[in-house]
Design a protein that fits this description.
It is found in: Cell membrane. Belongs to the YajC family. By secondary structure, the chain is α+β, with helices and mostly antiparallel strands. It has 2 domains: 1-39; 41-91, SH3 type barrels, CATH 2.30.30. It has one helix at residues 2-39, and strands at 45-48, 53-59, 63-68, 74-79, 83-87. Strands 4-3-2-1-5 form a 5-stranded antiparallel β-sheet, covered by helices on one side. Strand 1 and strand 2 form a beta hairpin.
Length: 91
Amino acid sequence: MSSTSGMIVYLVFIIAIFYFMAIRPQSKEKKKQAELMATVAVGDSVLTSSGFYGVIIDMTDDTVIVEFGSNKNCRIPMRKDAIVQVEKPEV
């Protein structure tokens, strides 16, 4: 009888460790990313997941057009979730 209860306690302990090391941080990161996407606006400087810096010049629901470089000719449409960092313009 005691080996069964010991096994249950061990299993609960393993599940708790898995929750706090994998599931909880991932859900926190997902929430943080959703908050970031809610604050993105035209004119913001952004860092993309591919490592490029640019400025948002147009937006739709799930797509942004980002202008890269200073020559104003490199404009690329991309998904909003490709943005990993946002820097608001100084007013």
